[in-house]
Amino acid sequence: MSDRTIDADWLRGEALQGILSALSEGGEEARVVGGAVRNHLLGQEIGDIDIATTCLPEETVRRAEAAGYRTVPSGIEHGTVIIVADHRGYETTTLRQDVETDGRRAKVQFGRDWEADARRRDFTVNALYCEADGRIVDPVGGLADIETRTIRFIGDPEHRIREDYLRILRFFRFFAWYGDGRPDAKGLLACARLKDGLAGLSAERVWAEMRRLLEAPDPGRALLWMRQTGVLSAVLPESEKWGIDAIAPLVAAEKAFRWPPRAMLRLAAMIPRTEEHARAVAGRWKLSNAERDRLIDWAQAPEVTAETSEAALAKLLYRSKSHAVADRLRLALASARAKAESNPEWLETVAALVRLVRFAEEWKRPKFPLTGADMIAAGHRSGPAVGETLRALEESWIDSGFTLTREALLERIPDPAKSG
Ligand code: ATP
Ligand code: MG
Predict the structure, then answer these.
(1) pTM for this structure?
(2) Lowest mean pLDDT among 98-112, 261-275, 355-369
(3) pLDDT range class, residue 34, cuts 50, 70, 90
(4) Range with top average pLDDT, 99-108, 335-344, 370-379
(5) Can you tell me which atom of ligand 1 is nearest the CA of 163?
(6) Which residue has the CA at smallest separation from atom 21 of ligand 1?
(7) Domain 1-148 class?
(8) Which residues line ligand 1 (CB under 6 A)?
């Protein structure tokens, strides 16, 4: 037990205290572990609350339900049960020690030994436990690494990576979020040596980890070290020749303009802007349909430059995917800002792009004022010709900068007698 304690509202929460107490009766124990303890000690917002307990999974379910909580057996064979209380899910895992690993999945054995449970976790800062009363238990020296913001493998890094190659990506993910200075040298070396093992991981696990890395407030330094060690090329060969030079300017622009950090835009910034590359990444990482479309839309978005007029931009926004056009403008603006730092000639470009980004963000898709019903009312018979005529009228409306009124457009509907 360390002297440090946690004094926080989330820990005093009725649901959490209720669960910890139900799982601690009769000689059993339960503690909060993982991200919540780590983030709290780092002074950062906490996400999910994970719990570790000596109770066997069935016993966890029994006690939680007896205390009036709902449970979801999300990975019960690995000892994990989600306890739902107060609209929150508490991932509750029986203490375990790994007995056999194949580099991807671990066979587990349940145990009662908190130190053994700590040793099978990945990094020291992730193996801190917190008792219901706030006292912190630190079996592997996580507190010292919290102080220096060091992401350090528990035990021998190479050995730990061979057990689960995803830990390479987790090393950089946690460094991106919580690390400071240079990454731990031994960890870095082990990642560089064993990066080929990443090829055996499932696409879903790689993308889930990469997405969270790319969502960090500033993933720039982590990505640099990933490139340095060859890890980035191993998972994202598209970034190899292209590089990650666009990341720092993008992050700087996000801060300056308060754009929310978006993993997809950062990913886009790291790959060549072609549909082929977008499809390759989407396929390899099994992106969701929405994510895939987003990446492909961006790759297909038409060219926009600082010279593009607002009128021309409005037409581009109407004719293509407006969010993709806006993303292209944002990346162009980020890059122009970086250039302007060393060359003031770029300042004019920056100013023009700022205006265009704002225009794109405020733009609302105008509604074409005519419909097929207007054509029928004018005496046309429904059929493909109606659609064609409507599209031609829509084109003239776009060309007018969306200024042609409904009345003007109605007058332009061709006479059915003449058009046959
Ligand atoms: P966050 O949820 O905020 O991203 P976390 O540390 O809670 O961070 P999870 O992925 O929820 O991360 O995992 C919970 C805990 O389980 C970790 O803190 C770590 O102790 C352990 N863990 C998760 N994945 C692994 C892994 N691949 N190898 C070893 N330990 C792991
Ligand atoms: Mg967690």
Answers:
(1) 0.92
(2) 98-112
(3) very high
(4) 335-344
(5) 28
(6) 121
(7) alpha beta
(8) 34-35, 47-48, 50, 121-122, 126-127, 164, 166-167, 170
What SS3 string covers the chain?
Answer: CCCCECCCHHHHCHHHHHHHHHCCCCCCCEEEECHHHHHHHCCCCCCCCEEEECCCHHHHHHHHHHCCCEEEEEEHHHCEEEEEECCEEEEEEECEEEEEECECCEEEEECCCHHHHHHCCCEHHHCCEECCCCEEECCCCHHHHHHHCCCCECCCHHHHHHHECHHHHHHHHHHHHHCCCCCCHHHHHHHHHHHHHHHHCCHHHHHHHHHHHHCCCCCHHHHHHHHHCCHHHHHCCCHHHHCCCCHHHHHHHHHHHCCCCCHHHHHHHHCCCCHHHHHHHHHHCCCCHHHHHHHHHHHHCCCCCCCCCHHHHHHHHHHCCHHHHHHHHHHHHHHHHHHHHHCHHHHHHHHHHHHHHHHHHHCCCCCCCCCHHHHHHCCCCCCHHHHHHHHHHHHHHHHCCCCCCHHHHHHHCCCHHHHC
Q: In the CATH scheme, what architecture does the domain 155-235 have? A: Orthogonal Bundle (1.10)
Where in the chain are the domains?
1-148, 155-235, 372-419
pLDDT of residue 107: 67
- Nearest ligand to the CA atom of 153: 1
300-316 confidence digits (pLDDT tens): 999 999 999 999 999 99
pLDDT of residue 378: 92
